[in-house]
Amino acid sequence: MNTLKDVQELIAQRAAQEITPFATVNLGIGIPTLIAKYADSDKVFFHTENGMLGVGELKHPSNFDPGLVNAGKLPVAEETGASYFHSADSFAMIRGGHVEMAFLGALQVDESGFIANWAVPGKNIMGVGGAMDLLSGAKKIIITTNHCTKNGEPKLVKSCTYPITSTRKVNTIITELAVFEFVNDRLKLIELMPGVTLEEVARNTEADYEINWRKESK
């Protein structure tokens, strides 16, 4: 696992294991978009906030339709039975609690469960998109992110130094080092990724957490 792509694929593959069969699932920008390739397309309904239910992975470039993209403007395919609707209706689905799971990227996640993923003071990034709505309306929020920044700084911090996206707390965090869950408002380490040690996680994590050992990921 030497490249950024390897890391992202590992996180996405593990994240796909979290999907509840036949759930309506929203995939955010970045690592979450990779999850579709590891999920059973017959047992999940992928949703995108620009107005589509039944999003599929584009497996061959020759099938590219310039009018068929996800919320991050990346080309996607359509599954059998896919439906299309106005973006306002799509956000109504989210705000009405009709999306069971949302996978989001993060700039930071703090030990209280708050996420920052939409703004860095003084820098231009893509923006909030549907993250605020998903954090408010989706029933379960799973964060997929590299454990540290490009500069080696921990992303799991004591308190977010970037503007938080919502006062809704996330449920699960998946990185290339470990899987964490928030249980009774406490951050708990439940799994290690293959070949990772507890010492490595501790060295790269600023946030306080408890070890609630479940297993080593396969």
CA distance, first residue to last residue: 14 Å
Rg: 17 Å
CATH class categorisation: Alpha Beta
The largest β sheet comes out as: 10 strands, mixed
- Low-pLDDT residue intervals, each spanning 5 or more residues: none
CATH level-four homologous superfamily name: Glutaconate Coenzyme A-transferase
CATH T-level topology: Glutaconate Coenzyme A-transferase
Q: Structural class of the helices, strands and pairings?
A: alpha/beta
Give helix % range.
10-25%
Q: Spell the H/E element sequence.
A: HEEEEHEEEHEEEEEHE
How many DSSP-defined strands?
Answer: 13
Treating each run of at least 4 consecutive H or I residues as one helix, how many helices?
Answer: 4
Verbal overview:
The chain has 218 residues and is of the alpha/beta class. The chain is 16% helix and 28% strand.
